[in-house]
Amino acid sequence: MTKAERTRQLIVEKTAPIFNTKGYAGTSLADMTEATGLTKGSVYGNFANKEEVALAAFDYNWKQAQSAVRDQMAARSTSKEKLLALTGVFENLPACFPKGGCPLLNTAIEADDTHPALRDKAMEAFRGWKANLVSVIKAGIASGEFRKDVGPEETAITLIALIEGAIMISRLTDNAAYNQAVMSAVKKTIIDLA
């Protein structure tokens, strides 16, 4: 890795938690320089602007989140167990999960109308997550774990909506019990696929 690549990586790793916690609008250049220990010139010598840093930070945060989910799913053998692993990740976020919660939720809400490039990143992340779940659900139908009348895309979107909704409600209210209640509903939804 070149010195420039290491510097870019440092900037992304140090600012990613800030962007995920404070959002694009709430993250200032002062936040970025304080977190990295670099000057404004060093930050903008490696990135064209704040949006470019935010896009790289989203990619970094999403990769962390997906890694946590995929590691848990990969450790399971059946489709049902793979889907149930989602609840384990989102009930008790592992240490490797990005600080500030789900980057998809955070970015999708903030960037909806104000930052088209960030919105596109969030949309790409959503599509990837949905495709992964659809694949698991189709495998479960093919193996006979799930009923043949289960709609893979509808089920995947429902699971994502329940999980993201649980995160939003529990963060808004600062009440983890709401997250646990919705994760129980997610488990029931998965169990009812059989």
From TrEMBL:
SUPFAM superfamilies from the UniProt entry: Homeodomain-like (SSF46689), Tetracyclin repressor-like, C-terminal domain (SSF48498)
Cited Pfam families: TetR_C_13 (PF16925), TetR_N (PF00440)
UniProt DNA-binding residue ranges: 28-47
Superkingdom of this protein's organism: Bacteria
Annotated GO MF terms: DNA binding
Name of this protein: Transcriptional regulator
Species whose genome carries this gene: Cupriavidus oxalaticus
Residues of the HTH tetR-type domain: 5-65
Upper lineage: Bacteria, Pseudomonadati, Pseudomonadota, Betaproteobacteria, Burkholderiales
Lipid biosynthesis is among the record's keywords: no
Keywords: DNA-binding, Transcription, Transcription regulation
